[in-house]
Design goal:
Elements (H helix, E strand, L loop, with lengths): L1 E4 H4 L9 E4 L1 H23 L12 H6 L5 H19 L3 H12 L4 H8 L3 H22 L1
Antiparallel strand pairs: 1-2
């Protein structure tokens, strides 16, 4: 049995010392919670996170979001238009495979399986399509 002071764990409720005996297992659990809380506060301090790190409501994304300047917005729009034009200049199979792999995030293996072709054909097609896009962007960019 271990003696603990309830005022250490409940300072709002206990204004005076209230020492009780608890089993060693409970004292160990209370001690582990104290260590976890101290580690959490230290992690929050080091990362300058003055909000809950466990929060799942997107607050981290909102804090990290930086508004773009009009020039950056225009540059992104032009870049997207150039990429769409480069993809449109490709043969149909290359365009579909590049779109599926890089935009939709489908693996090359899954693309090959879905089309019923060898994985090497898909890899060669994507590589050739990327080279064609690079040449298009060099000539038209």
């Amino acid at each position: 049995m271990t003696k603990i002071n309830l005022r250490d764990y409940y300072p709002d409720f206990y204004t005076d010392d209230c020492i009780i005996e608890v089993p060693d297992e409970i004292a160990a659990v209370l001690d582990s919670y104290e260590h976890a809380e101290a580690a959490y506060y230290l992690r929050r301090y080091r990362h300058k996170a003055y909000y809950s790190l466990d929060c799942g409501d997107g607050i981290e994304k909102d804090i990290l979001f930086v508004s773009l300047s009009p020039g950056e917005i225009y540059e992104r729009k032009v870049t997207a238009e150039q990429l769409h034009a480069a993809i449109a200049s490709l043969p149909d199979k290359q365009a579909k495979r590049i779109y599926a792999h890089y935009i939709l995030g489908i693996s090359q293996t899954d693309i090959a399986r879905a089309e019923g072709v060898d994985l090497r054909n898909v890899r060669k097609s994507i590589d050739k399509g990327l080279r064609n896009m690079e040449n298009f962007l060099k000539n038209h960019g």
